[in-house]
What does this fold into?
Amino acid sequence: MSKERARRRAEREAEAARARRANEERQARLARRRAVLARLVPRPVRVRRQGGLLARRQRAQNAVVALGFLLVQVLVWLLWGSFLASFAALVLSLLLVPVVVTLAFDRRT
It folds into this structure.
């Protein structure tokens, strides 16, 4: 009886070893495939926002400029209502926004 148990245990261990080798080979193939793909496909660059005082101030200034731009567009649309006046205000605003930002917030760099 003990010889039979020993034989079955040896068979189980041999089968487990074969399964372990097959799994290791599969994992190795997968690792090689991932390494090749990692070399071929560029990883996206992660862009993080700056969190300092200057960055917060500039975000606030940009928000003020955007709100001012939208306010001008809405006022022109409400007061004059014509397409030509709205288009002219849009073009003029797009040309003047950089000038206003430079003068108001001293961004000369």
